[in-house]
Design a protein that fits this description.
This protein is α+β, with helices and mostly antiparallel strands. It is built from 4 helices and 4 strands; from the N terminus they run ββαβααβα.
Amino acid sequence: SRGNPGPAASGAVLKELVDGKEGEVIATESKYLGETTNNQAEYVAIIIGLGRAKKLGVKHVEVYMDSELATKQLNGVYKVKNPGIAERFLEVKNLMHSFKTVTFKHVYREQNTEADAIVNHVLDNELK
């Protein structure tokens, strides 16, 4: 989001994982969210990414995101205290049942440039 809260969008880039290495982009998803928080936008990104992976029939998913909070919540390190985030958290947990494995890994923003570019494109178009 631009501001917190502020105008927000979510984006996901789905890539093949070949022998433990990042492969080709197989799909992208993005969505304008309107006014919301950074944390809400992060969770929506996870939900739209997992939703697209489910539609593609993917069975094993590694989610890389630059939200340390969401990563730690989904890995059980932190509790979810915010009621709005708790709803999104449950959506993610329900989607996880569609896959054999799902892992959540934190990466720094500099390693998440493709998803950031998608989000910024959506926001730029919406806020013209």
